[in-house]
Amino acid sequence: xxxxxxxxxxxxxxxxxxxxxxxxxxxxxxxxxxxxxxxxxxxxxxxxxxxxxxxxxxxxxxxxxxxxxxxxxxxxxxxxxxxxxxxxxxxxxxxxxxxxxxxxxxxxxxxxxxxxxxxxxxxxxxxxxxxxxxxxxxxxxxxxxxxxxx
Length: 150
Fold this sequence. Notes:
It is built from seven helices and no strands. It is elongated. The two termini are 15 Å apart. It is an all-alpha fold. The chain has one domain: bsu32300-like (Four Helix Bundle (Hemerythrin (Met), subunit A), Up-down Bundle), CATH 1.20.120. Helix 1 (8-29) packs antiparallel against helix 3, helix 3 (41-69) packs across helix 4 (76-85) and helix 3 packs across helix 6.
């Protein structure tokens, strides 16, 4: 069901931003732990790149759901589940997106509780979650282009 055409260029711009932020996050992830914590700018930069990546992830999801299914106001956790329910991303991966939405909310609303250690742990263990989102959306865009080119 297409309400109005997706702005593919907007989605691709956000994907490019996510890739740029991801590149910086990977660079930060390569810093040895003791060195990472020695410079307070490292956790701050990582947190900023991570939060901005998550904002772009959910901006993409909101745009797709709005244009394709008529969603208006939709919160991040609902975006995560609807993307899976609608087959835009793998249903199992939507559970990961749900956790990402919760973490984004934590970073924004209870930022004073986010520790440099947990940011470092995300750098070490969860950057592939963002990479997975990119691949899911690229797959979706390719399918969308095929369906709408007729």
